[in-house]
């Protein structure tokens, strides 16, 4: 038996002698979805029904011929589940017909990704009926609503940058970009908003102003992928066909994974620079605080901009030090990881600031719940060679970095690896199983830092490789894992971490100008004055300053 929901489980063929076990398992009804006589050794429904009644269970016969689930069949299954006492066990030869009927009957009640995830957890792949699920459980037309040579999923930094890089190389290329949002955000600026340096409105522009001229904007959300059909299914079951697909929708901030967090965000001293509307609250809390407990959290990896959680701490501590109140504030940095930063060469400079601000480092501390009204937080502590335990901490201010995952429609798709990220070759960023699909940005599984700087380098690499594929050539451009994390250790100084795969240092500037392992005013000038216009006017416009793709053999 495979549990689909708390109300429904599905199974392969059951026998009359199984009914007592089913009843003992708490089930109150049984649905048979297998026609009598389908197999030579199959018991009849009459036998199953008699055993069910003897055990006090309701039973219903809804036979479905294999591979022929009609819309009416799904409606009948849904009515049966509503009418019969639960929990219910539905069965057929393998359980596939039963779970398909459930998925179609629930299509107008649940999001597509939730249905696919429940079926996958139960051990069933519903890829073959994803269009019907997206169409509210009804059989859709097979004709596409739109076709493009290249379809890009996602209008964030990666999506617009790769669209601009493609247009810069091939102005006549037929490109469609799928993005439901109206506003595009410069997310690296939110740390500076939380530190009182940038105004929030400088980090936002309308999506329509940024999508490159000539690129068709499909303002919709993606429901699912059909890579075998070269199709993207949108909410409402519109179908977009492609010859090449680029997947870069970013990642999901999973606020709900921390119990009580959503209810207290933006009040009770709980804030986060990972949201546009909350970053100003961070600065407000910093200005108002004169003493007490300040906690800064970091969840398990991967997260976007791995340095951002501690950047919030450094800028807050610097502001308190300048006001002369830092000595009255107990600062804690609680990270689920076991190190301060993943590339060892940058740790000494960061530790100097940890000591300067007298901040306490609590490793292996993962935030699991928040009681905003009581101003308390609970962390699960999972230290090596020790049993996990939970500790409660009081706070007056807490900056939370939320757990992060791939978006739901990616995690349940045929494009994802076992962990839910788009499965790519880390050098070419081409999908490992589907030759006409590429991915970049935060959603793919190459082992690089998830930063806007990484997407800036990846965009021209993917553009060159897609165009090479169109021309029938091998993949010429290679990604070395470059990512950059400007660690704002105080107002006016930055430790500019630049590194690639395996933690290899990849500095962009001569050491005499910027030594990335030491705090630098030049790096601050780069972050404050140069990077925003580079982002808006170069990266998103196809101007690839210091972003030329690497190629094998290039020196």
From TrEMBL:
One GO term (biological process): sulfide oxidation, using sulfide:quinone oxidoreductase
Domain FAD/NAD(P)-binding: 149-252
GO molecular function: FAD binding; hydrolase activity; quinone binding; sulfide:quinone oxidoreductase activity
Cofactor field: FAD
Keyword annotations from UniProtKB, A to Z: FAD, Flavoprotein, Oxidoreductase, Quinone, Transit peptide
Alphabetized NCBIfam families for the sequence: TIGR01244 family sulfur transferase (TIGR01244)
Protein name: TIGR01244 family phosphatase
Organism annotation: Palleronia sediminis
Domain of life: Bacteria
Domain Beta-lactamase hydrolase-like protein phosphatase-like intervals: 3-107
């Amino acid at each position: 038996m495979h549990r689909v929901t708390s109300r429904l489980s599905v199974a392969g063929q059951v026998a009359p002698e199984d009914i007592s076990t089913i009843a003992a398992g708490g089930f109150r009804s049984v649905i048979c979805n297998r026609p009598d006589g389908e197999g030579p050794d199959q018991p009849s429904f009459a036998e199953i029904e008699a055993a069910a009644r003897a055990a006090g269970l309701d039973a219903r016969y809804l036979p479905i011929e294999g591979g022929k689930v009609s819309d009416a069949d799904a409606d009948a299954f849904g009515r049966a589940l509503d009418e019969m006492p639960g929990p219910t066990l539905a069965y057929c030869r393998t359980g596939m017909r039963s779970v398909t009927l459930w998925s179609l009957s629930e299509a107008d009640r649940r999001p597509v990704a939730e249905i696919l995830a429940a079926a996958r957890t139960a051990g069933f792949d519903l890829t073959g009926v994803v269009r019907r699920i997206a169409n509210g459980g009804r059989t859709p037309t097979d004709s596409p609503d739109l076709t493009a040579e290249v379809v890009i999923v996602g209008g964030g930094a990666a999506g617009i940058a790769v669209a601009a890089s493609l247009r810069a190389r091939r102005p006549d290329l037929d490109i469609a970009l799928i993005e439901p949002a109206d506003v595009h955000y410069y997310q690296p600026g939110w740390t500076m908003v939380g530190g009182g340096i940038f105004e929030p409105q400088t980090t936002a522009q309308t999506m329509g102003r940024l999508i490159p001229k000539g690129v068709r904007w499909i303002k919709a959300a993606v429901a699912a992928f059909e890579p075998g059909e070269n199709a993207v299914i949108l909410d409402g079951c519109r179908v977009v066909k492609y010859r090449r697909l680029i997947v870069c929708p970013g990642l999901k901030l999973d606020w709900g994974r921390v119990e009580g967090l959503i209810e207290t965000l933006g009040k009770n001293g709980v804030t986060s620079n990972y949201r546009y509307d909350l970053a100003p609250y961070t600065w407000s809390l910093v200005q108002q605080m004169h003493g007490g407990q300040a906690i800064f959290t970091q969840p398990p990896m991967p997260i976007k901009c791995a340095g951002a959680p501690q950047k919030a701490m450094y800028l807050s501590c610097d502001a308190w030090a300048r006001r002369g109140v830092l000595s009255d504030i107990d600062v804690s940095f609680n990270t689920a990881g076991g190190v301060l930063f993943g590339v060892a060469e940058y740790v000494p400079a960061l530790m100097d600031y940890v000591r300067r601000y007298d901040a306490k480092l609590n490793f292996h501390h993962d935030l699991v719940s928040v009681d905003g009204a009581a101003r308390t937080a609970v962390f699960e502590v999972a230290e090596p060679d020790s049993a996990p335990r939970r500790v409660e901490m009081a706070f007056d201010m807490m900056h939370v970095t939320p757990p992060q995952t791939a978006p739901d429609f990616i995690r349940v798709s045929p494009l994802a690896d076992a962990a839910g990220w788009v499965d790519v070759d880390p050098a070419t960023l081409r999908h490992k199983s589907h030759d006409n699909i590429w991915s970049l940005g935060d959603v793919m599984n190459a082992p690089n830092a998830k930063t806007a700087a990484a997407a800036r380098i990846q965009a021209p690499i993917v553009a060159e490789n897609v165009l090479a594929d169109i021309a029938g050539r091998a993949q010429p451009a290679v990604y070395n894992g470059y990512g950059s994390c400007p660690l704002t250790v105080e107002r006016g100084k930055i430790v500019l971490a630049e590194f690639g795969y395996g933690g290899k240092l990849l500095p962009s500037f001569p050491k005499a100008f910027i030594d990335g392992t030491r705090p630098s005013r030049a790096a601050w000038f780069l972050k404050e004055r140069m990077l925003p216009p580079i982002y808006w006017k170069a990266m998103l416009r196809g101007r690839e300053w210091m972003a030329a793709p690497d190629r094998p053999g290039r020196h």
